[in-house]
Amino acid sequence: MAGFLMKQMVGNQLSEVTGGLGMKDDGGEKTEAGEDPEVVAARLEQEERRKEKHRKMEQEREKMRQGIRDKYAIKKKEEGVAMDFTEGRIGGPRKTPEEIAAEMNAEDDSIIGQLGLTEQVEKAKTMATGAFETVKGFFPFGK
Fold first, then answer.
1. Alpha helices, H only, the chain
2. Which of 19, 86, 97, 104 could bond to 23 as cystine, CB 3.0-4.6 Å?
3. Among candidates 134, 133, 107, 137, which has minimal Cα distance to 122?
């Protein structure tokens, strides 16, 4: 009952006070997203300023990089140049069995091969390896 009497006395004046935030409609322009065009323009201007700032910073960095390249005589990597990588490998391309055999024959042409000591060197390697394995069995670091 008190609410009814209050509404009769105050009338529509209460809605004018409380409805100020929710009922305000100034009829201003809105974009498709429902934002004020001034806000959209301010955002675009801010984005342009940010891009310009980053562009200037990148120019300064490139100038500094070029100074380092000049100081140490380093060539700049060309972005369009294809590197000679074998896909999926860290090292270079694998050698064929023929290339490995050719290298083994080339080792025989070394000073040991020329002196005819290849067999003696192989025997010494075998003995040293065997001795090492024997000693390694006696000590705990070999297990």
1. 2-10, 13-18, 37-72, 97-108, 111-115, 118-138
2. 19
3. 107
Q: Which tokens sit at 2?
A: 């008190």
- Cβ-Cβ contacts under 8 Å for 142 (sequence gap 6 or more): 135, 136
CA–CA separation, 40 and 65 (whole Å): 37
- CA neighbor of 49 nearest in space, from 38, 41, 59: 41
pTM for the whole thing?
0.34
CA torsion through residues 24, 27, 32, 36, sign: negative
* Distance (Å, whole) CA 43 – CA 104: 71
CA 70 to chain centre: 26
